[in-house]
Each structure stands twice: as structure tokens, then as C-alpha cells.
Amino acid sequence: MAALLNGDISAGFSRIEIRADQIEVLEGPKAFYETLKQKIRTAKQRIYLSTLYIGKTEHELVATIHEALTNEPELQVSILTDALRGTREDPEPSCASLLASLIADFPDRVEIRMYHTPNLTGLRKRFIPKRINEGWGLQHIKLYGIDDEVILSGANLSSDYFTNRQDRYHAFSSKRVTDYFSRIHRAVCSISFLLQTGDTTSSPSHNLHWPQSNPSPSPLADPKGFITAATSLLLPLSTTSTCRNPSLSSPINPETNPRTSPSTTILYPLLSQPPTINTELPSLRTLLSSPHLKSYTFTAGYFNPHPLITSTLLSLSSSPPNPAQGTILTASAHANGFYNSPGVSGLLPAAYTHLSLRFLQAARRKAADIKLREWQRGTVGEQEGWTYHAKGVWATFPASPSSSRDPPRNQETAGPSATVIGSSNYTKRSYGLDLEVGALVVTDDEGLMRKWRREEEGLMEWTREVGEEELGGKERRAGWRVRVAMWIVKVVGGAL
Which one has a higher pLDDT value, 476 or 440? Predict the structure, then answer.
């Protein structure tokens, strides 16, 4: 099936051929954290971490990086976070103050960069409270590269993501893939503020500095010039020629192993840098619009897809003669990270319930074959309670017999033939405000298909199907306060 699908999506997009056995699917937060620490401990040359933030109390993670730097004199570390989230608690302990300790101990081998959105400047930046200023845009990329391996995920680096916040995690043991995403990481770092240590007697004892060597003006001084420069840096990384660049140190053919057959697995990097670059949305729509698609599962902890994705999901599940069977997997209100939060944010779980109801109503009107399932594992805030933060797509196609270009839809397969993984929540915000990176991976390899099936089924174990009657019932119906909260969030810029 990979050959048919690749023909649909390959034009103009970057692609990297790899072996299926170079992809490992991690099962949960504990496996993610332990794998990350193990890889950091054994790092020899480079560590690059792109994340929204590192939790201010993640002393163990920072100590692990410190240990690796002590043991390997040639090791270089680069960390990228968001500037607003990374300094939100200043002058109290924060992500920035935690990471400043690494700079103090290894000033020549550690670089901490913090990206600042060009959308929050001037009076808006001065007067909007820190708690909500992230609504104007964030560095939302999650890339965790160590030597020649990289983990793509939607998880940030804090205790809940290591214990009881479910996400997805794919580890790629490929120099070509790791080098490619390193280039994205370095490009964003080059247009970000540099974290510096300052006077230890002042509070905070660190500051953000805009280096003269940055290839763009500061987003606070010249937002338009910043966007232009950022586009010139990142746009080449989204084109087909990027993955054929000799600087990636390996040929366009898959990394070879004499004991294995040629690769049938292709990775398409996905990149969103508003307002000028978006390869994820067209790739996702192409995947879901394939006439060969048999079924799909679409998941997002915060289910509020971009209107173009919503229309695609509804259309493909109602298109005759063989509509694709669709499953939407989202967080129950009791697994939503905003459950029981104070203020307006505490109304958001009910707002997402209302959005799910509207989607099911639209599906019924279109006679679309779509089911919606809610994920719940305990209750947020209670003992053994988890939150749900996973996002992505699993797309299943019929097996592809060598003698036919149009296999029957009902032919059984080992599992999904394609998946999308990364940082994006697939919302208007994801494509209009935030920096996002992910990957669409397509395969004919049955072993990898089975891995994806186990991943999907593992998440499904904690779900149950919900319908219009339940979501629209008295206990879950959105009241006027929830509708007002949705309007307020939209007005202040923090699109759901």
C-alpha cells in the first residue's frame, strides 16, 4: 500500500527512506522517561532537546544531562524551549532558572535558546498577564535527539509527562532522520533568545539576550522582519531537495543493512511555521482523502480540529461507494488537563465535550460512518488519575497484492499502513500561531504495522464509545458559562 499512497503525497514534500526496524514505539510515560534518560547517559557527541518547557522541578533530568557532560568531554548540548512558558514563574524557580545551572557549569558546551512568538509585542506584551499570554503563540515542537537517534512525541519534559500523562512516542534509530530534525532544531535556535547567567545576587539570576549573530531581527523589535527571516531559514527544510542535500552525510537511499531487504518505509517530515509554512495540513488531508483508505483513527487530547480537517474527516466517512470507517479518540472530561482548574480554564473540559457533540451532529447529518470514543484512566487530581495528551492518526489500507494496483477494501492487513506523529493538536491554533514539527510515516512492513496496531489498541483499552444522547444529556450539556468561556478564549487569542 505504501507505493500507492506515496504516489499521492510525495510531490514537493521532503521524504526520507528508512528501514522499518529503525522505528521503536514506546508504550507510555514511564518508558519514555527511562528511554530518554538511558540515551542521555550514553550520549557521546550531541544532545538536542526541543520542547515547550522543562518542568522547574526536573532536577533528576538535569542531573542526568550534567552527568553525561561530565563523562564525555566532547559532548555538546542544545536545548530549545518557549520563552513565555520558560520564564512564566520568574523570578521564582522556573524552567529558565533550572537550565541556567547547566550553563554555569558548562558554558562552552551547553546552549539554551528560548523562542519568542512575533505575535506578542508592544503594549499587548506589556499588559497581558503571564498566565494567558501564551495564547498568542508558542514554540510547541517536541524533538529529543541524542547522537544518531531521535524521539518524536507530543510530550513535554515534566513529571506528569513521565508518570501519568498519556502521549505517543516514536524513537527513530536513524542518522539521516536525526540529522534532518537537528537542522530544524538549529534553525529555530538561531532565531531565538539566548539564555545567559547573570548576577547570582539578583532575582532572577539569568536573562534572555538577542545575539548579534542571529540571522533575523528580534521578534519584539521587528515582527515582520523576523517572520521573513524565519521563513527563509525554515522553508528550504520543507522541500524535496532538503533530504537529498549531501550535508546530511548519507544518500537518498535507505540506510542499508546487508541482512535486510530494501526499505518499504518512508518518513515525510511535517513542519508548521505560521503564517508562511505548513506542510502538515496538506499532507494530512492527502492521507485522509486517499481513495484506498479503509479505516482511520484520529486522536487529539483537545479535540477541536481545523475546519479543513473536520470537513475531510466527515467527507471521507460518507463518500460512496465504500466510505472509510472513522474513529475519533479524545480525552474524557475527567482526563482533560484542565479538569477542575480554577477560573475560566476549568470550563474547558465541558467546552471540548460541546465540540465533540457538534462533530457527532455534523457526522449524523452527513451519514458519516464515524464513532467517537473517550479515553479515561481514573480522574484527574485523584490517586491513579491520568490525563490524555496523545495526538496523531493511524490510517489502514487494504493489503496490496503484487498483481493489482487497486486491491479490495476488505482485505485484512497486519495493522495501519501509515501514522502521523508529532507536536501538533491539528487545530486552528496549531496552524495559525504555534511552531510545530511531526512526521507522516508510511510502510508496507508488516512488523511495523503490528507495532502501530498494538499502540492503537493499547490506547483503546482505556476508552468507551459515547454518542449524541450522552454528550447532549443534562449532566454533560454545555451551559451558558461554557459558551461564554469558549468566546473569551477565542477573543484573547488562545484558540482551543
Answer: 440
Residue 461's Cβ-count burial label (10 Å; 0-12, 13-18, 19+) is exposed
Instruction: Say if CB 380 and CB 407 are below 8 A apart.
Output: no
Q: Is 389 an active-site residue?
A: no
- Residue 340 φ then ψ, to 5°: 65, 20
Q: Angle, nearest 10°, between helix axes 175-189 and 223-234?
A: 160
More reliable by pLDDT, 301 or 205: 301
Q: How far is CA 399 from the centre of its chain?
A: 29
Please tell me whether the peptide bond between 217 and the residue prior to it is cis, using omega within 30 degrees of 0.
Answer: no
* Terminal Cα distance for the chain, rounded: 35
Report which secondary-structure segment, H or E, holds 372. Answer: strand 370-375
Specify the pLDDT at position 244.
45
Residue with C-alpha cell 461554557?
482
Task: Measure the CA angle with vertex 226, ends 225 and 229; round to 5°.
Answer: 85
Instruction: Read off the pLDDT band of 427 (50, 70, 90).
Output: very high
Query: In this structure, what C-alpha cell is assigned to residue 139?
Result: 514554540
Q: Which of 140, 170, 292, 389 is catalytic?
A: 140
Q: What is the pLDDT of residues 157-201, one digit of tens each?
A: 999 999 999 999 999 999 999 999 999 999 999 999 999 997 666
Is residue 261 scored above 90 in pLDDT?
no
Rounded Cα distance, 481 and 496, in Å: 16
147 catalytically annotated: yes
Whether the predicted model's global pTM rises above the 0.70 cut: yes
30 in catalytic set: no
Q: Which of 142, 206, 294, 391 is catalytic?
A: 142
Q: Which residue in 147, 160, 222, 369 is the catalytic one?
A: 147
Evaluate whether 14 touches 271 at the Cβ level (below 8 Å).
Answer: no
CB contact at 8 A, 270 and 420 = yes
Sequence-ordered list of residues with C-beta below 8 angstroms from that of 324, at least 6 positions apart, any chain: 288, 293, 294, 295, 296, 316, 317, 369
Report the alpha-carbon distance of residue 406 to residue 291 in Å, rounded.
Answer: 10
The whole-number pLDDT of residue 239 equals: 76
What is the amino acid identity at position 187?
A
DSSP state of 323: P
